[in-house]
Specification:
The protein is of the alpha/beta class and about 300 residues long. It has a single domain, classed as 3-Layer(aba) Sandwich (Rossmann fold), CATH 3.40.50. It has 10 helices and 13 strands. The strands form 2 sheets. Strands 8-7-6-9-10-13-12 form a 7-stranded mixed beta sheet, with helices on both faces. Strands 1-2-3-4-5-11 form a 6-stranded antiparallel beta sheet, with no helix packed on it. Strand 7, helix 5 and strand 8 form a beta-alpha-beta unit. The longest helix is centred in the last third of the chain and has 24 residues.
């Protein structure tokens, strides 16, 4: 149940468990986003149902975004995540990529010596990953705990933005990890994207929000991970993808990605190193955490 109150505040149930007045952050003609003052999470309100999320990804997502996710533009992202992981864990070992798409990241991991598995709701993307020789697991099997404490590493690359409930997903991930296992997550950075909404409108990108149903700050994701028993070990900027630079894309999309790649990334990295890793301001960030136990 929700209760509308003054100042565009709404008492809502946040995934963190807080029942507090959530303040409206912004809205579009079709969407409204609110912020939880307890954990700092920004999310779509009303939140999507599990049925709507799963139905979209099974049937429609691949047609909307499959070609983009399968393009070479994602390679810098995959390389960034794998490099981050390699600082804390090396093969041999088992790795599960949740939301693996057509297996592009897993292919890179397999070349590095990992035993790779994936889980993917999109039927078409899962089929392409299987054709590359990847082991694709059933999401229902993971939910039932059939793979509990099985994986040394679980990765979620821009997945938590589009789940029905991130805390439920993180709890499942914690169960999948072997004691001492590692989870590494790449997420869109609210510290960057929320202020960028105004200049995006200036260049004509009125609805280019750069995120989906949830928008994370490092504080929000740390709190959510701690709530399921995951201990954060490392946090850093994530390298941007090269972006859609084809002439078929609108000029403002090409400009956005060019600026991100040539100007914002060096600026973000300079601040990151100057503050000894305390200031994360790239368009996306990576957070690495560990399940307690030997390892």
């Amino acid at each position: 149940m929700t209760t509308e109150i003054a100042n565009k505040e709404t008492v809502v149930g946040c995934p963190c468990g807080a029942m507090v007045p959530a303040v409206e952050v912004f809205h579009t003609p079709t969407r409204r986003y609110v912020r939880c003052p307890t954990c700092d999470l920004v999310f779509l309100y009303p939140r999507p149902t599990r049925e709507s999320v799963e139905g979209y990804f099974r049937e429609a997502y691949d047609g909307d975004y499959g070609a983009v996710e399968a393009s070479e533009d994602r390679q810098p992202v995959y390389q960034s995540v794998l490099k981050h992981l390699s600082l804390y864990r090396s093969p041999p070992g088992s790795i599960l990529d949740v939301g693996c798409g057509d297996g592009g990241f897993l292919l890179l991991c397999r070349q590095g010596g990992w035993n790779c598995s994936g889980v993917e709701l999109s039927k078409q993307a899962a089929m392409r990953a299987a054709q590359k020789g990847m082991t694709i697991l059933s999401p229902r099997a993971l939910e039932r705990g059939e793979w509990a404490q099985h994986f040394d590493v679980v990765t979620l690359i821009n997945v938590l933005e589009t789940v029905a409930d991130p805390v439920i997903m993180l709890g499942q991930v914690a169960t999948l990890l072997a004691p001492g296992g590692i989870v590494i997550i790449r997420a869109t950075n609210g510290l960057f994207h929320l202020p960028m909404r105004t200049p995006a409108r200036w260049i004509g990108s009125q609805y280019d929000q750069a995120f989906h149903w949830y928008l994370y700050t490092t504080k929000a994701l740390k709190m959510l991970m701690a709530s399921v028993g995951l201990k954060v070990v490392s946090l850093r900027n994530s390298r941007p993808s090269r972006g859609p630079l084809s002439p078929v894309h609108p000029w403002f999309s090409r400009l956005k990605w060019t600026v991100s790649r040539t100007l914002l990334w060096p600026f973000s990295q300079t601040l990151y190193y100057a503050t000894n890793g305390r200031f994360i301001c790239a368009p996306s960030f990576e957070i690495l955490a560990q399940r307690p136990g030997n390892g």
